Amino acid sequence: MTTDDILRTVTDIAAAETGLPASTLTPDADLRGMAGVDSVRVLRMIARIERTYDIELEDEDVFGTATLADVAAVVGKALREAA
C-alpha cells in the first residue's frame, strides 16, 4: 500500500465524516479549519480510519496532526509498525 493510497482513503473518510466533497480536500487541508469540523468529527474520522486499517493510532501522534497528509503519514507509520 502506497502513501498515495493511504492519503486517498484518509481523504475519502474525511469527506464522508465531514460531508465535504473529497474533491475539495487537499493533502494540506487544515483539519481544524474545515467548515463545520469540530473535535468530535475529527475523533470520528480517526476512529473510522482505525477500523478501516485495523490499527490503533497513538494519541500523541494523532494530536500532532494538522493536515490530511499528516494523518496519512501517521497511518503509514502505524501500518509499518504493525507489519
* CA-based gyration radius: 12 Å
CATH architecture: Orthogonal Bundle
Share of helical residues: 55-70%
Question: Which residues sit in consecutive blocks of at least 5 with pLDDT less than 50?
Answer: none
Give helix and strand order, one letter per element, not per position. HHHH
- β-strand percent reads under 5%
List keywords for this structure.
mainly alpha; 0% strand; 4 helices; 83 residues; globular; Non-ribosomal Peptide Synthetase Peptidyl Carrier Protein, Chain A
In a few lines, what is going on in this structure?
With 83 residues, the protein is mainly α. It has four helices and no strands.
Structural notes for this entry:
The chain is an all-alpha fold and 83 residues long. The protein has four helices and no strands. The chain is globular and about 35 Å long. The mean pLDDT is 93.
Which helices and strands, and how do they pair?
Elements: H1 3-18, H2 39-53, H3 59-63, H4 68-82
Domain Carrier: 1-79
Protein name: Acyl carrier protein
Keywords: Phosphopantetheine, Phosphoprotein
